[in-house]
Specification:
Number of helices of chain A: 11
Structural class of chain B: mainly alpha
Strand order of the largest sheet of chain A: 6-7-8-3-9-10
Largest sheet of chain A: 6 strands, mixed
Order of helices and strands of chain A: EEEHEEHEHHHEHEHEEHEHEEHEH
Radius of gyration of chain A: 22 Å
Shape of chain B: globular
Strand content of chain B: under 5%
Largest sheet of chain B: none
Strand content of chain A: 25-35%
Distance between the termini of chain A: 37 Å
Oligomer: heterodimer
Distance between the termini of chain B: 9 Å
Number of helices of chain B: 10
Number of strands of chain A: 14
Number of domains of chain B: 1
Structural class of chain A: alpha/beta
Order of helices and strands of chain B: HHHHHHHHHH
C-alpha cells in the first residue's frame, strides 16, 4: 500500500525550478532516503508532500488523500522531524509534548497517558521537567522525534535528523529509527550523510538540481554506478605518479585537491605500484555510497 | 493555495491559543504588573499633575476625562505589542508556527489564534486599568461595566492591524515604524489626552477615520455615565478595521509562509 505518491512534481521560485518533475511512490513500512547536496530541492519536496506549499505542477497523494487539498487531515497520520529544532523554549520537556498533542485534537487524558512512553523511547524520562535550554543537542533531537510520534503516525518525515550531532547521539537516533521501522512505521528521510542512508534506507534516490538522478537500494546504486574498489592516494609526487602509472592501472581517476581517487575493478596492480613508492600514502577501501554521490553530483561546493 | 480566499474560521485555533495562554501563565504576575505600570504612570502623573493645573475638561476633572483614553490606549498598545513582537518571535525566531503547521492545523488557524490571543491579552491589560479607574473612584456609573464588552473589540481591531504589519516585517526594527508613524500619532489625535475638538479642522477630519477615535468615543461616555451617541456606527467602524486587518494579515502571511 502506498502511503505517499508524487507524480511529476514541480515547483519554481522566481523563475528557477527547484523541483523539476519528480515522481516517486513510498510503500508502507519502508525507509526511503532522499539524498542530495544543499539546494537540491529535498526540503522543498518534503514541504510539497506535507501540503505546506502548493506545487507548480504535478500531483501528490499522502495517506491516500490528495495534497494540498486534503493535506490537513492527511497530516493527522504523519509525524515530522524538521531540520531545525523548533521546540517550544518556554516549556518543559513534557509540556512540549502535551501542547503538541493538543494540536492533533487528542484529549488531555490520551496525551498524558502517552507522554511517559514517549519520554522513555527518547531516553528523556529523567528530564521530563527540564527546560529546553538545559538540553543537549542530542536530547533536543530526541525530544523532537518524540514530539513527532505524539499522534502515533504511520509515516514520519525526517529532514536531516542527525545533522550537528556527535557520534553517540547519532547512533542513538539511528537505533530509535530502526525500532520504529521494526514497528511497521514508514520513514522518509533526507540526509547528506551517506553512512546514515546506507544503514537505514532500503531504497533511496539521489536528487540534484530539482531532479532524481538515480534511484535504488544502496547496493544497487554502488553496483550500477561505480567500480567496487577505491584507492585514495596523496603525498609528494602523487600527480607524477598519476600521470605516469595510475592512468593505466585504474579504470577511472578523480582529483580533489592533492588527493587522487583511483577507481578500479581489480585494485592489485595499483597496490603493487604504490608499494614500490615510499613518498605516497594511500588508503584502499571498498566503494561506498559517497563515491556514487560524488560521482553523480560532482565535487564542487554547493552553498 | 488560494492566497486571496477568506480566512477560515475554525475552532482548531483553540489549542494554539491555549499554547500562548500556558506560556503567559508562567509569567502572569510580572506581565500584568508590567502592562499596568506604564498607563498607570500616565493616569496618575498626567491626571493629577497636569490635571491640577487644568480647569475641567469636557465638563469633568481632567483625570476622569483621561481615564477612558488610557483604558483604550493601553488596550490598543497591548494588542499591538503582542501581535507584533511576540507573534513575530513565534513565527520567525522560534519557528513555533512551523512546528504547529506539521500538525493538522493550517496557517489560517494559527493566524486566528494569534489574533484571539492578542485580543485576550489586551483585555487583561485594559481590564487592569479599568479596575484602577474604579478603585480610584474615577468612574462610578454602572454603565462603565459595558466597557468590559468593548475591550475585546478594541483588542481584535488593533491586534488584526498589527498582525498585517508583522506579516510584512523582516526584523523587529520594522515595528518601530508602525509605533512611530501610526500608534503614537493615534494616541495624540484620537482624543486620548484631550478632546478631538481641540485639533485644527484638518486633523479632526483625519481623526474621524482612525479606529482609536471610535474606541474612545464609546468608552468615554460609558465611564462618565452616559450612553454613547452613534454607538452602532462606532462599533461598525471598529469591526470594519478588525475584518480588513485580519483579511490583509491572512493574505500577507500566506504569501510569506506558504510560498
Amino acid at each position: 500500500m502506498a502511503v505517499l505518491e508524487a507524480h511529476n512534481l514541480r515547483k519554481s521560485y522566481g523563475g528557477e525550478e527547484v523541483v523539476a518533475g519528480v515522481s516517486f511512490g513510498i510503500q508502507a513500512g519502508e525507509c526511503f532516503g532522499l539524498l542530495g547536496p544543499n539546494g537540491a530541492g529535498k526540503t522543498t519536496t518534503l514541504r510539497l508532500c506535507l501540503g505546506l506549499t502548493a506545487p507548480g505542477g504535478g500531483s501528490i497523494e499522502l495517506m491516500q488523500r490528495p495534497v494540498p487539498g486534503e493535506a490537513r487531515p492527511a497530516r493527522a497520520r504523519v509525524g515530522v522531524v524538521p531540520q531545525m529544532d523548533n521546540l517550544d523554549p518556554d516549556f518543559t520537556v513534557s509540556e512540549n509534548l502535551l501542547v503538541y498533542g493538543r494540536y492533533f485534537g487528542l484529549t488531555e487524558r490520551a496525551i498524558r497517558e502517552r507522554i511517559p512512553e514517549l519520554l522513555e523511547f527518547a531516553g528523556l524520562t529523567a528530564r521530563a521537567a527540564s527546560q529546553i535550554q538545559a538540553l543537549s543537542g542530542g536530547m533536543k533531537r530526541r525530544l523532537t522525534l518524540a514530539r513527532a510520534l505524539i499522534n502515533d503516525p504511520d509515516l514520519i518525515f525526517m529532514d536531516e535528523p542527525t545533522t550537528g550531532l556527535d557520534p553517540q547521539a547519532r547512533h542513538l537516533i539511528w537505533e530509535r529509527l530502526k525500532q520504529l521501522l521494526a514497528r511497521g512505521k514508514t520513514i522518509v528521510l533526507t540526509t547528506h550523510f551517506m553512512e546514515e542512508a546506507e544503514r537505514l534506507c532500503a531504497r533511496l534516490a539521489i536528487m540534484d538540481r530539482g531532479r532524481f538522478i538515480t534511484e535504488g537500494s544502496p547496493r544497487e546504486l554502488i553496483l550500477r554506478h561505480i567500480e567496487p574498489h577505491v584507492v585514495e592516494v596523496h603525498g609528494d609526487g602523487v600527480m607524477d605518479w598519476t600521470d605516469r602509472e595510475a592512468g593505466k592501472l585504474a579504470s577511472r581517476l578523480e582529483k580533489s585537491g592533492d588527493t587522487v581517487f583511483c577507481y578500479a575493478a581489480d585494485p592489485a596492480p595499483l597496490l603493487a605500484s604504490l608499494s614500490r613508492l615510499q613518498d605516497l600514502r594511500y588508503l584502499h577501501r571498498p566503494a561506498n555510497l559517497e563515491d556514487v554521490f560524488l560521482k553523480l553530483t560532482g565535487r564542487e561546493l554547493r552553498d | 493555495m488560494r492566497v486571496f480566499a477568506l480566512p477560515s474560521m475554525n475552532l482548531r485555533f483553540v489549542p494554539v491559543w491555549r499554547r500562548n495562554l500556558l506560556v503567559w501563565r508562567k509569567l502572569a504576575i510580572p506581565s500584568i504588573l508590567g502592562n499596568l505600570a506604564d498607563p498607570l504612570i500616565y493616569v496618575l502623573g498626567l491626571g493629577y499633575g497636569l490635571g491640577s493645573m487644568l480647569p475641567e475638561v469636557g465638563g469633568v476633572p481632567y483625570i476622569a476625562f483621561l481615564a477612558a483614553g488610557m483604558v483604550c490606549s493601553s488596550t490598543m498598545n497591548s494588542a499591538t505589542f503582542e501581535s507584533m513582537y511576540s507573534a513575530f518571535s513565534r513565527m520567525h525566531v522560534q519557528r513555533t508556527w512551523d512546528a504547529i503547521m506539521y500538525a493538522p492545523v493550517d496557517l489560517d488557524d494559527v493566524v486566528l489564534a494569534e489574533l484571539a490571543w492578542a485580543a485576550s491579552k489586551s483585555v487583561l491589560s485594559g481590564g487592569a486599568i479599568l479596575a484602577v479607574v474604579w478603585l480610584l473612584g474615577l468612574s462610578s456609573s454602572l454603565l462603565s461595566l459595558w466597557v468590559i464588552a468593548l475591550l475585546p473589540l478594541i483588542g481584535l481591531t488593533f491586534g488584526a492591524l498589527a498582525l498585517a504589519v508583522t506579516a510584512m516585517a523582516r526584523s523587529y526594527d520594522f515595528f518601530m515604524y508602525y509605533f512611530t508613524l501610526v500608534i503614537t500619532p493615534m494616541n495624540l489625535v484620537c482624543g486620548v489626552f484631550f478632546p478631538v475638538e481641540q485639533l485644527p479642522a484638518a486633523f479632526q477630519a483625519i481623526a474621524a477615520f482612525l479606529p482609536l477615535t471610535h474606541a474612545v468615543a464609546i468608552a468615554r461616555p460609558l465611564l462618565l455615565g452616559h450612553i454613547p451617541s452613534d454607538i452602532v456606527f462606532h462599533v461598525l467602524v471598529l469591526l470594519a478595521y478588525a475584518a480588513a486587518g485580519f483579511y490583509a494579515a491572512a493574505i500577507l502571511f500566506r504569501k510569506r509562509l506558504l510560498k
